[in-house]
Design goal:
Mean pLDDT: 91
Shape: flat
CATH superfamily of the largest domain: 4-hydroxy-3-methylbut-2-enyl diphosphate reductase, catalytic domain
Order of helices and strands: EHEHEEHEHEHEHEHEHEHEEHE
Radius of gyration: 21 Å
Structural class: alpha/beta
Largest sheet: 5 strands, parallel
CATH class of the largest domain: Alpha Beta
């Protein structure tokens, strides 16, 4: 923790001479990405015909590593002549997996266990006759996979201009994308509950995601600048940057140390480092090394 005194009327520590660098508490792969990554390494080591529909995780470094090892990324099942369909961490709709099996493909399900839990929950709630509402990005592969288990589900990322569908829904049951911003979850749940008599709410935001958001928030309150490391297409990484800015820190999202810009720093501020769930831990250390190279008088504080 930064033990500098706090200026009156400010939640930021008082300025100290020289840059101070600190990492958020939660770093490295989340357990779901770790499982998927290790399974992908095992499959590509044993077979030459392993395919995935979409990148297995939202991190270009890991995607390139697995591509070099032979994991082939395709757009559809039609692009897989034979071999293995490797189901990525975000999961797939059950209809897609069924089609793959009917085609004779070997299916390896590497869906994150937290996502699998939400898929099963959505299916159960739908079979009970409930109106399932999925909070999340309708274009995100995880959300598409969950929706495949609950035909007719309402997918909501922002409050709709036309409220007709949500007002007509009965016996609503809410689940969410695992990487959803916690503030957005609470806002949308509150608005839905305010206009419907019966609403069941299941907070299926991943515990790792919640932990990263909490630690990023806490660190952002202490520092001037946050460097968030992760894939540009990663929802959970973007949310960390958004939350950091909401706490008053300047936030910069980078995929690797090469994207850092020296003009972002004046050498006399406090800097926080946060990483997305698909970001290998060593990238945080590489970013810190680059900052220390630019600013030799900087102090790295290990939480």
């Amino acid at each position: 923790m930064n033990n500098s005194t706090v200026e009156p009327g400010s939640h930021k520590p008082a300025a100290v001479k020289g840059m101070r660098i600190q990492k958020a508490r939660t770093q490295g792969f989340c357990f779901g990405v770790e499982l998927t990554y290790k399974k992908a390494l095992s499959e590509t080591a044993e077979r030459a015909d392993v395919y995935t529909m979409g990148n297995i995780v939202h991190n270009p470094l890991i995607v390139k590593e697995l591509d070099d090892k032979g994991l082939r990324n395709v757009d559809s099942l039609a692009d897989i002549p034979e071999g293995t369909l490797f189901v990525r961490a975000h999961g797939l709709p059950p209809q897609t997996i069924q089609e793959a099996e009917e085609k004779g493909l070997r299916v390896v399900d590497a869906t994150c266990p937290m996502v699998t839990r939400t898929q099963r929950l959505a299916k159960k709630l739908s079979e009970e006759g409930r109106s399932v509402v999925i909070l999340g990005d309708p274009n995100h592969p995880e959300v598409k996979g969950i929706a495949g288990h609950a035909p007719g589900a309402i997918v909501m990322n922002e409050w709709p201009e036309d409220e007709t569908e949500i007002r007509r829904a009965r016996r609503i049951a809410i689940v969410s994308q695992s990487t959803l911003n916690g503030d957005k979850f609470r806002e949308l749940v509150g608005r839905i509950a305010a206009m419907n008599y019966e609403v069941r709410v299941y907070n299926t935001i991943c515990s790792d995601t919640q932990g990263r958001q909490k630690s990023a928030r806490e660190l952002a309150r202490e520092v001037d600048v946050m460097v968030v490391i992760g894939g540009a297409k990663s929802a959970n990484t973007r949310h960390l940057a958004e939350l950091s800015e909401a706490e008053g820190a300047k936030a910069h999202l980078v995929e690797n140390p090469d994207e850092l810009k020296r003009e972002w720093f004046n050498g006399d501020e406090s800097v926080g480092i946060a990483t997305g769930a698909s970001t290998p831990g060593f990238l945080a250390d590489d970013v810190i090394d680059k900052l220390l190279n630019w600013f030799p008088e900087a102090e790295a504080v290990w939480a």
